[in-house]
Amino acid sequence: MPFSRRTFVRGAAAIPFAVWLEQQAWAQTVSIRYDATSANGQAMLKIYAGAVKKMMDAAQIKEGNPHSWVFQWYTHFVRRDRTKAGELARIYPNLTPPNDVWKALATEVWNTCQSHMGQNENYFLPWHRMVVFYFEEIIRNVSGVPSFTLPYWNYTVKGPLHGVIPPEFRKKGDATFGSLYIDKRNPGVNNGDSISKGFNPDPINLDSFKQCNYQGNGSGVLGFCRDIDANLHGQVHVRTGNQVNMGDVPWAAGDPIFWLHHCQIDRLWASWNAAGHTNPSDNPFLIKTFTFADGKGNKVIAKIGDVLNIANMKYRYDSLETVPKCSIGVPTANAAAPRRLVEKKSPIPLGPGPVRQKLEAPPSPTASVPLGDRIAKLAPNKKLFLVVRNLQASAQPGVTFNLFLELPAATGDAAHFVGSIHFFDAAMNMPSDKYFSFDITDVAKRLKAQGKLATNAELTIAPAGTPAANAKPVIGDVSIVEE
Predict the structure, then answer these.
(1) The domain 339-482 is classified under which CATH number: 2.60.120, 2.40.160, 1.10.3470, 3.90.1150?
(2) What are the residues whose beta carbons fall under 8 Å from the beta carbon of 43, sequence distance 6 or more?
(3) How far apart are CA 338 and CA 218, in angstroms?
(4) Residues of the chain with CATH 2.60.120
(5) Using CB atoms within 10 A of its CB, is residue 2 exposed (0-12), middle (13-18) or buried (19+)?
(6) Domain 5-317 sits in CATH 3.30.2350.10
(7) Per-residue model confidence (pLDDT) at position 7
(8) In this structure, are strands 435-439 and 315-317 parallel, antiparallel, or unpaired?
(9) Where in the chain is the domain with CATH 1.10.1280.10?
(10) Residues 6 or more apart from 22 whose CB is under 8 A from it?
(11) Around Cβ 477, how many Cβ atoms within 10 Å?
C-alpha cells in the first residue's frame, strides 16, 4: 500500500496494536529471527543488504520517505553534526504532498530513542523492541519479501565467533553485501577481529542475567534493564564503532549493524523473561506510548504494554540463552538501606593516563573503622558495589576506561579489575540518571584476605587506549556501597 494522506490520517487514529497486527499478512504465523551466522540468517542478510542499498539510494527512495535509510536512522537520533530542525528544513523544503504528512511524522518520531536524554530508564528495552519491530517490517516492504526477519548478531556466543561482526558486514564494494559495510568502525572490526580483543576480563558478557529484577533500587542494584543498557549494550557500541559511528548515540543507527545489535539485546531480554523474570506492571509504564512509521510508512502508535511478550507480537528467536539463577537484587528479610562505606563526591577528570583516586569514608560514627574491618564483618546476605555516577564528556572519548581496586603501581593486574565504563551516553549534553555499578564483593574480600586493602580504598581508572583530546571525560561521583 502506498503512503498517502488517507493512510496517514488512519494511522493517526491510534489503532490498537492487536487490531493493527491482525491486518498484517505476515503476522498470520509466528516469524522466527535467526542467528546471523546460521544458514537462515545468512539468507536473511542477503535480503537485508538489498533493502538497505535501496533505502540508502535517494534516487530510489527519497530521504523524506519513512522507508528511507535516513528516516529510520533519525528515528533513533539525528546525526550529531546536524540538528533535527535543520534536517527537517533540508529534507522537506516544501509541504507539497506527500511531504506534508512525511514531515509531520518525522517531527513526531525523530530523536525519540529511549533513554539517552534523561527519560525513564525503564523505557530502554521496550522502545528498542518497538523500533526494531517496525524497522523489520519496513525491510519486508522495501525488499518485497514478506517472510523476512531481522537476524541477530550473537556477539556473546562462546568460541571463535565471539564478538566478531558477521562477514557480510565486512565486504567493501561487494555487489551483494557492500551496502552493509561501513568504514568508520573501530580498527580491526572490519578485518574480523573480536570487539573483545585485548580485553581481560571480557566485558562482552551475560553478567546482566545476574539481576533478579527489571528495575533496580537506584544504588548498587541496577536491575536488568539498566544493567544491560549501561554495560553490554554500551560496550558493544563503543567497541564496534568510532565517534562518528556506533560509538556515539546520534551516529549509531546509521550503521546497518546497529539493528542486528539491538535484535540481540531484544533476544537477551526475551531470554531473561523466559527464565521466569517479570517486567514492570505499573499502569504508567504499561500505557506509555511511542510513535513510529510502520511497514507501509504510516504512523503507528505503540504502547509498552503491548510489546512485553514477543509471543503477542508474532515472532520468536531460533534459540534463547540459558539464564542462571540470579544473584543481585534477591529479596532479603529486614533489608536495610544501602550504606556508603567510602566515596569521592567531587569531579574526577580523566585523561590519557591512569588516574588514582583515594576514596574516603563519609562522616559517620564508623568513619574511623578501616574498610577492611568492615568487609571482614560483612553479613552473608550483603554485597559490596562500586557505584560510578554523573559521567560527562565534551565529546566521545572513543575508548573505554577500566577500573581497578588497590592496583599496584605500573601494572594492569586482572586480579584487581572490578569493571569497565564508557561514555556512550555521557556526551549528550542532557541531564541523565544513568550510572554504573559493579559487584566487587569477591574482589574486596580476596584483597582483604591478602592484606592488600588500604584503610579506605584506592581506585585506579585507566583508559583502554588513547581518549580523544577534545573529550574531557569526567566522573562526578564514586562510592563503595554496602547493601
Answers:
(1) 2.60.120
(2) none
(3) 10
(4) 339-482
(5) exposed
(6) no
(7) 42
(8) unpaired
(9) 5-317
(10) none
(11) 16
- 39-56 vs 69-76: helix crossing angle, rounded to 10: 100
Q: Which residue has the cell 513526531?
A: 108
Residue 130 makes CB contacts below 8 A (sequence gap 6+) with: 290, 292, 302, 307
- In three-state secondary structure terms, 458 is strand
> Cα separation of 431 and 151, whole Å?
34
Residue 327: CB atoms within 10 A of its CB come to: 13
DSSP sequence for 362-431 = PSSTTTTS-HHHHHHT--TT--EEEEEEEEE-SS--SS-EEEEESPPTT---GGGEEEEE--TTTTS-S-
Please give the pLDDT value at position 127. Answer: 99
**Helix extents (H) in 281-370:** 283-286
Residue 439 has which C-alpha cell?
Answer: 559487584
Grid cell digits, residue 400: 573505554
pLDDT at 13: 52
Give which of 201, 194, 130 is closest to 164, Cα–Cα.
194
List, for the chain, all residue ranges whose pLDDT scores fall below the cut of 50.
1-12
Q: Whole-angstrom Cα distance, residue 255 to residue 48? A: 13
Q: Which residues pair with 459 in a beta bridge?
A: 357, 405
Confidence (pLDDT) at 304: 98
Grid cell at residue 123: 523505557
